[in-house]
Amino acid sequence: MSRIAKLIVIVIVLAMAGCSYENTATVTIDTGIRKQAQLSLLDKVIAWFSLSQPLQADQPPANVSFEELTLTVSASDMSTITQTYGYSDIINNNGKITLEIPAGSQRTFEVVAGNGGNSRIYGGIATVDLSPEQNVNLDIQMGELTIVTPYWISSNNNIEIQCNRYYPQPIFFKVYQYIIGASPIYILIDTVAASSLSREVNTEQIKYYYSNSAINSDNFGQFDISAVNQYGEGEKTYIME
């Protein structure tokens, strides 16, 4: 390659890099997760000799335990970005994640913390508009995701969806068909508002009653249900008998 050709290639690469930088925003996400503060030896000695009230370490905004946290950034006009971090990665960075995101409107940031696989224990969602070269500090409030236990009721062909009443309650449910194969997949077949279903409340649970003609006594075990609350979508759970 001639010297002139090399210079042209360098100019093109630099121009592309410049355009890429100018069309992105730097987003620092604060998940609110903090390392549990510990009292120093000096604090303990002072507390002992001063006979004051026992000192307590500051509680973290989100005192949670998990193995990994997945961040997903999506919008209609960009490729979805997915990053996974270990618990220590989050804790050692004071609960913060920084990354470059293509500028544009309606960028949805979803964080889900769990213990690997399909585990979804805590979550949080925020949607923002981003301008080129903007620096954004984005606080995402995380909370417990709703866990459901669905049962097939053969007497009336309904599905009873049990939720612990002390967890954040679902806004809607998602119903999936689980296709078993070399690469198992979930196909979303229905989304239903929790408020549209009849329900029964007792001291420990809220039971929602759902029916779908595609689900019957021969195939109910091939379907999964999840609940979506203000913090995101919880784990998918198969319908049991």
Beta-strand segment tally: 17
Mean pLDDT: 84
Helix content: 10-25%
C-alpha geometry: elongated
Q: Return the domain count.
A: 2
What's the gyration radius in Å?
24 Å
Architecture (CATH level 2) name of the largest domain: Sandwich
CATH class of the largest domain: Mainly Beta
CATH topology of the largest domain: Immunoglobulin-like
Strand-residue proportion: over 45%
Number of helical elements: 3
Q: What series of H and E elements makes up the topology?
A: HEHEEHEEEEEEEEEEEEEE
The main sheet comes to: 5 strands, antiparallel
- Structural class call reads mainly beta
Strand order of the largest sheet: 3-2-5-6-8
What are the segments in which pLDDT stays under 50 over at least 5 consecutive residues? 17-21, 46-62
How far apart lie the N and C ends?
Answer: 70 Å
Secondary structure blueprint with pairings:
Elements (H helix, E strand, L loop, with lengths): L2 H20 L1 E7 L10 H10 L17 E8 L2 E9 H6 L3 E7 L1 E11 L7 E9 L4 E5 L3 E2 L3 E6 L4 E7 L7 E8 L5 E9 L4 E4 L3 E6 L12 E7 L2 E2 L3 E2 L3
Parallel strand pairs: 1-7
Antiparallel strand pairs: 1-4, 2-3, 2-5, 5-6, 6-8, 9-10, 10-14, 11-12, 11-15, 13-14, 15-16, 15-17
Structure description:
The protein is mainly β and about 240 residues long. The protein has two domains: about 25-145, Immunoglobulin-like; about 145-240, Immunoglobulin-like. The protein has helices at about 5-20, 40-50, 85-90; strands spanning about 25-30, 70-75, 80-85, 95-100, 105-115, 120-130, 135-140, 145, 150-155, 160-165, 170-180, 185-195, 200, 205-210, 225-230, 230-235, 235-240. The strands form four sheets. It has a five-stranded antiparallel β-sheet with strand order 3-2-5-6-8. The longest helix is centred in the N-terminal third of the chain and has 20 residues, at about 5-20. About 20% of the residues are buried.
